[in-house]
Write a structure and sequence with these properties.
The protein is mainly alpha-helical and 233 residues long. It is 79% helix and 0% strand.
Amino acid sequence: MSNSSSAITDAFSLLVSGDAELWNIIGISFQVSTTAIALSIIPALVVAFLLAYIKFPGRRFLVSFFSTLLSVPAVVVGLTLYLVLSRHGLLGEWRLLFTQTAMVLGQMALSFPILVAMGHAALQSSDKRAWETARTLGAGVFKTIYIVLREVRFGLFAALLAAYGRILAEVGASMMLGGNILHHTRNIPTAIALETSKGDFAQGIALGMVLLMLAFTLNYLLHYFQGKEGLVE
């Protein structure tokens, strides 16, 4: 019990004292995940919009495909990209393996299906008359798309929060693609796995606290915007 209390006390000390190594890990984690989300959001919204509003051959297959990708484990995504980026892989000449770029690619692959599936669900639930009315009143295509997206903005924001939370906490793909290199590719989940395996629980607990605070914040925002969406409806 005393060892556990000591580890928790040390964890608080690391957070409050501004431990350079700890905050470097936190910074890398947020930098990589934010980059991955920023690069994924617009293409994912385009795909979600096309699946919701445009009828074309194979549309149902693509909807099912993206829904299936939601259940693919992160380690499988990591393994697939590892084989592609490894020295003898398809993109081996790019030498991206064990870099932050590789981690971004892995997290994009994880977040993209979430953004598409949840974005598609939000757009499907919207009133299709908004599109027809806007077009009838002479609005251009891009302005009409803006009107429709604004109509379901809370659902889209929920998709963004869900995807961001997923990639910040995943460990499998980041470990395989980043290599868990200190000051370079070591993020919060991989650092927790490493430090816990070494018996250094203080840093693991401190980083776990950061993830818990993040999870609480994201869930609070998710419920808040879902409530706002209900009020709008």
